[in-house]
Specification:
Blueprint (H helix, E strand, L loop, with lengths): L1 H12 L8 H16 L2 H6 L3 H6 L2 H10 L7 E11 L3 E11 L4 E11 L5 E10 L1 H6 L9 H26 L3 H12 L1
Antiparallel strand pairs: 1-2, 2-3, 3-4
Helix pairs in contact: 1-8, 7-8
Length: 186
């Protein structure tokens, strides 16, 4: 039984998701503010040489038109990822900013050579009306019984795998238990 509890704890621990690096999060927010306010000199000073060479003032001005002029009422981190090779690190943060007239999604890719400073390599901006953003929100309102059935199966599938792992552990079928635990965390 102790082995079962240990394996279950390890399986559940593998589901943990880290959080965004606060320094990269702040840097990505600052980049958005530079774009939103039209402070292109500050933006260019934080960019890599390649990004500076490939970015025109017209492109930056066009990007600014996608941003909103008012201060966002809410900001959310949608996703982040960090990739590292032997001498290059890349960190991308995607934020969503709620403004009065639009919702803006902004992505900033920052890179670092060795132990050097983090520099902005690429930015991407997109905007939606609040009505368009509401269309993509998860809601159970107006769903058919088939939608509820699929949701129920999505919740029941890992519970069934967990139940199978417990029964396999109780019957001392260790290989089956481990295989079932992989189903829970997948």
């Amino acid at each position: 039984m102790r082995i079962l509890v240990l394996l279950l704890a390890l399986a559940l621990a593998s589901c943990g998701v880290g959080s965004v690096d606060p320094e990269r999060d702040t840097q990505a927010r600052d980049v958005y503010e530079h774009v939103r306010l039209g402070d292109f000199d500050a933006l260019r000073s934080s960019m890599t040489d390649a990004a500076n060479a490939n970015t025109t003032d017209e492109q930056l001005q066009s990007m600014r038109e996608y941003a909103a002029l008012d201060t966002p009422s809410e900001t959310r981190v949608l996703s982040w990822q960090w990739n590292t090779t032997s001498d290059l690190s890349a960190y991308e943060v995607v934020h969503e900013y709620d403004h009065q007239q639009k919702v803006v999604q902004f992505s900033a890719l920052m890179v670092r050579q060795g132990e050097g400073p983090w520099l902005v390599e690429r930015v991407h901006i997109n905007h939606f009306s609040p009505a368009e953003a509401a269309l993509t929100a998860f809601t159970l309102q107006g769903k058919t019984p088939l939608h509820y059935g699929v949701l129920a199966l999505a919740v029941l599938a890992p519970l069934f795998c967990l139940f199978t792992a417990v029964v396999a552990g109780w019957r001392r079928r260790w290989v089956w238990m481990i295989v079932s635990l992989f189903g829970v965390v997948s």
